[in-house]
Design a protein that fits this description.
Blueprint lengths: L30 H9 L12 H9 L4 E7 L3 H4 L4 H4 L5 E6 L10 H15 L5 E4 L8 H11 L4 E6 L5 H9 L18 E5 L2 E5 L9 H4 L17 E4 L2 E7 L3 E8 L4 E6 L5 E5 L3 H8 L14 E6 L5 E6 L3 E6 L4 E7 L4 E5 L3
Length: about 350
C-alpha cells in the first residue's frame, strides 16, 4: 500500500470522496494534496475523519520524544487538557510557531514570560521551549540542538492541533521543499507518516481537532478571514461609556460603562472586518446586517450564546478560539461576549 507523500493517507483510485483518492495510478500525492499545493484549494474536507483520542493513543505507543507544535497566535486553542497524563513517561519539547505574526512590541523576554506562566496555569510540564517563525525558518538550529539534547531514543513524534504548523516545521527541519502538504485547511495530515532524518526516525501525525474552535466550525472557504499570513496590525479603540465591537460575524463584545482612559485592542487577521458601534444599537445592527456587513459567519445569529465577564486584571485578554483576541485596559462595569454556540471563549492576563 502506497501512502500519499503529502498527508500520509493510503492512495486509492476507487472512492473520490474518501482520503487518498487520486485518478492517477502512479501518483505520489492524493488529489486533495495536489490541489492544495498547486491551487490553494481543498476539494474534500476531512476535518472529522480522525479521532483525537486515537491520535493521542497512537503517540503514547511510540518510544519517542514528543515535539508539541503550538501556534502562538491561537495559543489557547492549541492547549491540550491533561497533556502530561496522555504521555506518561515521555519528554515533551514545545515548539512555538508563527512568532513573526506577533507585533514587534512583543519582546522575546515578554513572550517567554507569557509561555511559562500559561503552561504553569494549565498544569503542563515540558522539557524545553523553542520559538520559530511563521515559515519555520527561525529557530531551526535551536530546535535541532534541543532534539539532540532531549531525544533518549532515535524516534521523534511531531504532534499538535491542526493548523499549528507541524508540516512547516518538518519541511524546514528535513529540508524537503514542501514535500509534506502545507495549507491553512485543518485536517491536512491524515495518517502517521514515517520519515528518515539523519539517524532519527520522525513520525508526522494528523492534526488534533478542536471542535470548539472557529477554525473547525467555519466552512473551508471562510478560513482566510481568521488565519493570518502576515504580522498582526493591532486595532486600538479608545472606549467611551457603552460600546459594542463586532469581530466580523463571529463574535460581539459589549462593554458597559467604560470609564475614562479605557481602551480595547483587537488582535486578529487583517482580512476579518471589525466594526465598532454604540451598545444600544448593537442588537438592531446584528439582526439587520448579520451575514452581510457582519461576515464571515458560522451559524444563525439566533444560536449565539452570551457570556459575562468582569475585570480580573489591569490588562486582560478575551480570546475567541480560532479568531484571535481583544485586549482590555482601564475600568468598566462588565463585558458581554456573544459567540456561536460551541465556539469557546476564555479570559487571561494580557499577553501584550
Amino acid at each position: 500500500m502506497k501512502q500519499c507523500k503529502g498527508c500520509g493517507a493510503i492512495l486509492q483510485s476507487d472512492l473520490p470522496n474518501e482520503p487518498g483518492y487520486t485518478p492517477k495510478k502512479d501518483a505520489e500525492y492524493c488529489m486533495r494534496c495536489f490541489r492544495i499545493q498547486h491551487y490553494d484549494d481543498v476539494t474534500v474536507s476531512y476535518r472529522t475523519k480522525m479521532d483525537p483520542t486515537e491520535i493521542l493513543k497512537g503517540i503514547q505507543q511510540l518510544d519517542a520524544l514528543v515535539l508539541w507544535v503550538v501556534d502562538i497566535f491561537d495559543f489557547e486553542a492549541n492547549m491540550i487538557d491533561g497533556l502530561n497524563r496522555h504521555f506518561l513517561g515521555k519528554d515533551i519539547l514545545m515548539v512555538v510557531t508563527k512568532r513573526d505574526l506577533l507585533p514587534d512590541t512583543v519582546t522575546n523576554q515578554k513572550l517567554t514570560h507569557f509561555l511559562l506562566r500559561r503552561l504553569k496555569e494549565y498544569g503542563i510540564s515540558v522539557k524545553g521551549i523553542v520559538v520559530t517563525g511563521q515559515y519555520g525558518k527561525d529557530g531551526v538550529q535551536e530546535l535541532i540542538q534541543a532534539i539532540e539534547t532531549y531525544a533518549k531514543t532515535k524516534e521523534i513524534v511531531v504532534m499538535g492541533v491542526a493548523n499549528a504548523g507541524k508540516s512547516t516545521i518538518l519541511n524546514t527541519l528535513l529540508r524537503l521543499d514542501h514535500t509534506l502538504t502545507m495549507s491553512r485547511y485543518p485536517g491536512t495530515t491524515l495518517g502517521f507518516t514515517k520519515l528518515d532524518w539523519n539517524e532519527y526516525i520522525i513520525y508526522d501525525t494528523p492534526g488534533i481537532h478542536r471542535y470548539d474552535s472557529a477554525i473547525f466550525l467555519l466552512d473551508d472557504q471562510k478560513l482566510k478571514y481568521v488565519i493570518p499570513n502576515r504580522m498582526i496590525r493591532p486595532i486600538v479603540y479608545q472606549l467611551r461609556q457603552d460600546q459594542s465591537i463586532a469581530l466580523g460575524g463571529l463574535a460581539r463584545i459589549d462593554l458597559k460603562n467604560a470609564h475614562e482612559n479605557a481602551s480595547l485592542t483587537v488582535y486578529a487577521c487583517e482580512r476579518l472586518p471589525i466594526h465598532r458601534g454604540k451598545l444600544d444599537a448593537a442588537d438592531e445592527l446584528w439582526k439587520k446586517h448579520y451575514n452581510e456587513l457582519l461576515t464571515p459567519t458560522i451559524d444563525l445569529y439566533d444560536n449565539f450564546v452570551k457570556e459575562r465577564f468582569h475585570k480580573t486584571e489591569a490588562a486582560m485578554d478575551i480570546c475567541v478560539y480560532g479568531v484571535g483576541w481583544v485586549s482590555l485596559r482601564g475600568a468598566f462595569d462588565w463585558i458581554d461576549v456573544w459567540h456561536p454556540r460551541g465556539c469557546k471563549v476564555i479570559i487571561r492576563k494580557a499577553m501584550i
